[in-house]
Write a structure and sequence with these properties.
Length: 42
């Protein structure tokens, strides 16, 4: 925990960005799975 405050803020910003990107990726994967599932039924 001996990180300067400025760097800490920057790290948090990057973490949030990465988290958002990961969330979007997971949502896309879920949609694709849902789509493939529907295709299999028909």
């Amino acid at each position: 925990g001996s990180i300067p405050q400025e760097k800490d803020d920057r790290t948090i910003e990057i973490d949030n960005l990465v988290f958002k990107l990961e969330s979007v990726k997971h949502k896309r994967i879920d949609k694709v799975k849902l789509y493939i599932g529907k295709e299999d039924e028909g």
